[in-house]
Amino acid sequence: MVAQSSKIRTVVVLLAFRLMVGFIVAAWSPFLVLSAHPGKPFAELVPLSVAGAVLIAVGTFGYLWCAWDFASTGLSFSPPLVVESGIYGFVRHPMYFSLVLVLFGESVFFESWRLLGYAWVFWLIVHIFVVIYEEPHMVKRWGSAYPQYSKRVPRWIPRILRPSTE
Fold this sequence. Notes:
Layout lengths: L1 H35 L9 H29 L19 H16 L3 H30 L2 H8 L14
Helix pairs in contact: 1-2, 1-3, 2-3, 3-4
């Protein structure tokens, strides 16, 4: 009973943390940018609003899906295994990818060059962090399992269909 309670608490803490980070990156920061430099009024956004809303919805769904997969499968901020299930089977860094998708969607939705710049800078910083620190750290942590995973799953552009495991 205690182990189950501890597991549930871990999942809740991990989900809360991931949701807080997602909120800060994809909601609070864009709000601050738009508060200082508003885009076009909502009524003028009809042609691009659908495309932006779709990107935002897909990115939000992806972020929530990967936060759940990470929290329920890894059960740690630093899981003892390479998480390959769920959305992690389509793209290696789904949290970052999903946040970037939301930010690009917001820049399209609000027709905001400033939000587009924020999205590009965020992606560039994340890319540099992933390439220079995170992926080499994962190779050290998990050995040959991570390079094998890297060969099967792309870093940034999700594979729509999983390769067959023959």
